[in-house]
Amino acid sequence: MGSADSTTPISLWYRRLSRRELLARGSDLAVLSALTSGCASLAQQEQGGARLGFQAVTPSYEDTLIVPQGYRADVLLRWGDRLFSDTPTLDSEAVVHGELLKPTAARDQTRQFGYNCDGIGILDIGNGELLVCVNHEYPNPELLFPGYRAAQRAGEASTFIRKNPQCVEFMQATVGVSIAHFQFATNWQLKVDSPFNRRITANTPMELSGPARGHDLLKTHEDVTGTRANGTFYNCAAGMTPWGTYLTAEEGVDDFFGNRRAASFTSSVEQAHNRFRPRGLESRFRWEFADPRFNVALNPKEPFKFGWIVELDPQDALKPIKKRTALGRFKHEGATTVVAPNGRVVVYMGDDQAFEYLYKFVTRDVMDPENPESNVDLLDAGTLYVACFSEDGSGKWVPMVWGEHTALSLENGFGSQGDIVLRCREAADLVGATPMDRPEDIAVSPRTNKVYLSCTRNSDRGEGEVEFAGRVVDSSANWANPRTPNSWGHIVELSEYGADASATEFRWEIFLLAGDPEVGQFLTMLDPGSLVSDSDSTYFAGYSDTNDLSAIASPDNLTFDDAGNLWITTDGEQPRGNNDGCFVCPTDGVSRGAVRQFMSGPIGCEVSGCEITPDGKSLLLSVQHPGEGGTVETPVSSWPDGGTAAPRPSVIAVRPEDPRRKLTG
Ligand code: FEO
Ligand code: CA
Ligand code: CA
């Protein structure tokens, strides 16, 4: 299967396991028990969720992809699938033999679908054709290069990189973004060699725009103007703008920079790094041992060019790609865009680290739906707000505007809006933002305009005063993060004042305290201001029938369908030790909060992406890092190719087997 030609129609790659097969395979009784115990009856399911016509998937521990009966899953894009016919598709059987150590591997990867697919954006270009934009988060060198994990265990990973500098060139080609042109007839088909197909990597030139453009902190040896950046990486979740551009979020970029302890920073550089720090010694991926750009002792300001929301036009490769600094620098998870009643564009964004914040940006100018060109630089001017939650269920969006907020002044070292966006976390500290349990993605209901924020988890919640990201923070539970410790994550529901996304006040309540509804206290009431001291206590928006609920934890990416159902993908430990998956629940009506598992991924993966095609029939999901926890030599997954193939992060499409049906209903 490793040599499948991307020009041929894509076959059915997933296999649904029957109960008989599960029983036959399940030598581990504990596993069997968990597999069968989570299966609610169809009658129970339909009673609880009339709009969702499927039977929940049970927790799985198998190296396979499972969707409900009546649905099919097709693999659209595997890591290494060629986007252009001048390049081979990756031979996944050859990875274990050192295929990716060859000097040609990096060049090929720049013409192939990238690694560790994450956020997805879909642009409908008519005639049943879509441009699918996909983020690639980070490399897993232990799954790419034979010998890497052994060297790492021996404390010699940096030596391995020095001896094999081509590994860094390869990894730099795996990250960034892929744009792939698809058409749909009776099945999905990649258009190899489409002029829209494109790879953006850690070395693709782009511009910095907005208030930090030209700032001293952005001026480097390579770019004395402080207006340019080379590449993008750790691209996590994403968003589409109403004018058809793709927003890709740079998240854990600090993991790519090392050698901070050997650096002697100026005071302004030290201050700007403090809340978003490069690694003290070796970086996580050790690129600095082959590329000095990632050594902060040599290039102290290079990290400031990362940690932004990046905007690109999938239809026009000649348009400059721009890092929109007005939206702040932090560990950006996603960028969810809505148009407020006054025509201003609002971008909701999470900062995914423990005790960080929820933000939104409101454009200064209004969008012109008739004239896309006039919206090109809308994201360069506007107001960046951070969320403050109150105990009584109210909340405020506090503007972080230089010259307006007394705390954001020269006395505290802020001399411009550029200073505020570059030291965004510090500015948010000073205005009293509410520290959250790792704010990830945000989705807005198309039916109610309510805003949903997933907080993936925070095991340090409730540990007293803790040092995180350069400051000491009170980790006590607060009303918007009410559970100590927060082992399983939660979802907060916000109602903007007047259902206006540009409002400065909101109401809020907890929508979900994730976990296993069969374990711990199952809450059916949870008023704002309530605190929850048991990490196993769960709350499903007041839904009261535990037989009708799936266990869920570590909510990450979110999206809505037209019917108002919230789709949730997970990234991290699940309550029954099972694989990550995709879940869905109604947000209003009698089934509000009835979370049901829709898909289970293979071993070691997180599930992300989570976008619905414009016809409402297909759900696109990223199956990221299958096989994580294993190595090239000792794999724990061979999904999707099977046999002795290396696992391949892939984008899948799930749709009803009946082509007349929509995803739900
Ligand atoms: Fe990349 Fe916050 O998940
Ligand atoms: Ca994520
Ligand atoms: Ca995550």
Summarize the structure.
Helix content is 11%, strand content 28%. It is built from 11 helices and 34 strands.
Please characterize this protein's 3D structure.
The structure is a single chain. By secondary structure, the protein is mainly beta. The chain has two domains: 1-40, no CATH class; 41-79 and 114-138 and 175-252 and 307-656, Neuraminidase, CATH 2.120.10.30. The chain has eleven helices and 34 strands. Strands 13, 14, 16, 17, 18, 20, 21, 24, 25, 26 and 27 form an eleven-stranded mixed beta sheet that branches. The longest helix has 9 residues, at 29-37. It is globular, with a radius of gyration of 23 Å. The chain binds MU-OXO-diiron (FEO) and calcium ion (2 copies). One calcium ion (CA) is lined by residues 440, 456, 556, 571. One calcium ion (CA) is lined by residues 236-237, 333, 440, 556-557, 571, 608.
C-alpha end-to-end distance: 35 Å
The CATH topology of the largest domain: Neuraminidase
Rg calculated over all Cα atoms = 23 Å
Major β-sheet annotation: 11 strands, mixed
- How many H/I helices? 11
Residue share in β-strands:
25-35%
Shape: globular
Assembly type of the shown chains?
A: single chain
Please, how many domains? 2
Report the structural category.
mainly beta
Mean pLDDT: 92
Q: Kindly provide the name of the CATH class of the largest domain.
A: Mainly Beta
Q: What percentage of residues falls in helices of 4 or more residues?
A: 10-25%
